[in-house]
Write a structure and sequence with these properties.
- This protein has eleven helices and nine strands.
- It has 250 residues and is α/β, with parallel strands linked by helices.
- It has a single domain (2-183, 200-248), classed as 2-enoyl-CoA Hydratase, Chain A, domain 1.
- α1 (29-44) packs parallel to α3 and α5 packs across α6 (151-158).
- The protein is globular, with a radius of gyration of 17 Å.
Length: 250
Amino acid sequence: MDDLIQQEQRDAVVEIQLNRPEKKNALTLPMYRQLSERLKAADENPKVNVILLTGAGDSFSAGNDIGDFVASVDDPQSVKVIIHFLHTLAAMKKPVIAAIQGDAVGIGTTLLLHCDLVIAADNLRCLMPFVRMGLLPEGGSTLLFPRMIGHQSAFELMVEGSAFGAARGREIGLINQVVGLDELKEVARSRAQALADLPIESVKASKQLMKKDYLEQLHSVMDEEGELFYQSLFSREARQAFSAFLHKNR
């Protein structure tokens, strides 16, 4: 399992990579647990100033691994593992940069709301298909997306589930910079290193002040979303969507 989450440190930058390219980095519960552990360790490591999240292969993340998720759906702890990861990411004191490409589906999109900088390849395709699958948005997205882009635009992306690319992501403020796919890692690592070279205590204090007015509310909303998300897993619509997905991918 260690191979599915890889980590490398360059100077004061830790790069954490999702390494399941044959499944478009779809996330399993053990991967969520390991991500939480590695993020927390990096945040507490005095030799780390910046965390860079990446995905191996042609996509950042296809979201939850449906097969893994269905197998554990009767256990309430399954959703709590995911929500714990989101709480951990949202509470990070040190800056987190994401370098994303290809598909970013479900939580592959919503986790970006908790990153401080997002660098995207021009082939990016974001999609939040929660409602289509009889589920509910998570990751604090019901708070942060309307706050970021307004109710109507957020409704379009989260309820209608409209896909959007890097240019739209840049337009709505989710993405800081769009680059060619072949430049993605180089640009992201360069910006991560430049950020790591800044006075770390000033960076951390600035981040804390910028999030201070909504962070407590965010954690509360993520818990509420998680509870409602778990309840929605047992709906007829969700069961049908899971069954159709698994049948299609046999």
